[in-house]
Design brief:
Layout (H helix, E strand, L loop, with lengths): L15 H8 L4 E5 L5 E2 L14 E5 L3 E10 L13 E8 L4 E6 L14 E8 L5 E7 L6
Antiparallel strand pairs: 1-2, 1-3, 4-5, 4-7, 5-6, 7-8
């Protein structure tokens, strides 16, 4: 693997199952056994009913862009080569939302739109870290 120079997430006991699922290319998020809500970002209590009965559940990895921004000026040297790039809030089909990047947009991020269907792409950036990114779903599949 090539050297990755951007900041990387650090798993902790609450988030480790999420990061492990990405390494297996099978995204999982928490689901509350009491109110049945899917939850992202990982936490110790359900944000809807305060239950501690949260279980890791596989999800589809498909959703729609809820909102987005196109970054033209990189926040630091490590991101400069990527600009312009899309940062989006994706609402998964299961209902929770995830901040991510939209990739594979044919070198023109201006074509990305709110409501656009997307699917997960697993970016294995180191042996220990896989990042969830999303790409537009081909029109025939949408």
């Amino acid at each position: 693997m090539t050297e990755y120079t951007k900041p990387l997430p650090k798993a902790d006991p609450v988030t480790a199952p999420f990061w492990e699922s990405l390494k297996r290319e099978k995204i999982e998020v928490q689901r509350c056994d009491d109110c049945e809500a899917h939850i992202f970002y990982p936490r110790a209590l359900c944000p809807y009913c305060s239950s501690r009965r949260l279980k890791w559940t596989p999800v589809s990895g498909r959703g729609r862009i809820y909102t987005l921004t196109i970054v033209h000026k990189a926040p630091g040297p490590a991101f400069k080569a990527d600009a312009p790039y899309v940062v989006a809030l994706v609402e998964l089909d299961e209902g929770c939302r995830m901040m991510t990047n939209i990739v594979d947009v044919l070198a023109d991020p201006d074509h990305v739109r709110i409501g656009m269907p997307v699917e997960i792409v697993y970016h294995h950036v180191t042996d220990d870290v896989t990042l969830p990114k999303f790409r537009p779903v081909a029109r025939a599949e949408a």
